[in-house]
Amino acid sequence: MNHNFESLEERQIATKEYFRNSFLHVTEDEVLLPDGHETKRVVVHHPGGVNLIALDENKRLLLVEQFRYCMKTTLIETPAGKCEPGEENVITAARELEEETGHRAKNLTSLGCFATSPGFSDELIENFLATEIEPLEELAKGDDDEFINLYFVTKEEAEDWVKTGKIIDFKTIYAIQYLTLNGLW
Q1: Can you give the pLDDT at residue 140?
Q2: Band of the pLDDT at 3, cuts 50, 70, 90?
Q3: Is-contact 49 100, C-beta < 8 A?
Q4: pTM of whole model > 0.85?
Q5: Which H or E run includes 156?
Q6: Residue 63 CA neighbour count, 13 Å, CB half
Q7: In CATH, 49-181 is 3.90.79.10
Q8: What mean pLDDT do residues 143-163 have?
Q9: What are phi and psi of 85, to 5 degrees?
Q10: Contact, 92 vs 84, CB < 8 A?
């Protein structure tokens, strides 16, 4: 097998949409491979999202627990949410922090993006460090279908929860590693 292609790009020849709703859509694309052969790729198109790495004044990480239907269990995660059309990601981050946790951040700093599942989805999540967080005087109205418990955890608790499998969410594990590797914890 030759591993030295001048270009690794796969070019779309045709596409067929299988599903669409207000949130995402799924296509099956016929693509031309670098060696001239053709194949099919299924793609879940996603509007993108934000992930909030929110620290309180005691350097505890703000986490949410919610039931994740696809997983058939509750997960403990960093607050996050999907991007709305035309909304800047920093605005999405501020809105999601307020809606999901009832907190506001004085500082929101972009930490860049990661691809969640590039083998089948085009979703990108932009990570934001949220510092100097404070509870809102009046709780923001979250989504009608979200039921959430809040936790503030120390570095030791977070690392233990990853080791014991209490935290399995990738964006949350990323947040814990980011804080540790950058000396923020």
Answers
A1: 54
A2: confident
A3: no
A4: yes
A5: helix 155-163
A6: 26
A7: yes
A8: 91
A9: -55, 130
A10: yes
**46-101, pLDDT tens digit by residue?**
999 999 999 999 999 999 999 999 999 999 999 999 999 999 999 999 999 999 99
Name 116's Cβ contacts closer than 8 Å, sequence gap at least 6.
46, 123, 124, 125, 170, 171
The edge-to-edge listing of strands for the beta sheet with 49-54 is: 80-82, 49-54, 124-135, 103-115
User: Contact, 46 vs 55, CB < 8 A?
Assistant: no
Contacts of 23 (CB under 8 A, 6+ apart): 47, 82
d(CA 61, CA 172): 10
The C-alpha atoms of residue 41 and residue 139 are separated, in whole angstroms, by 44
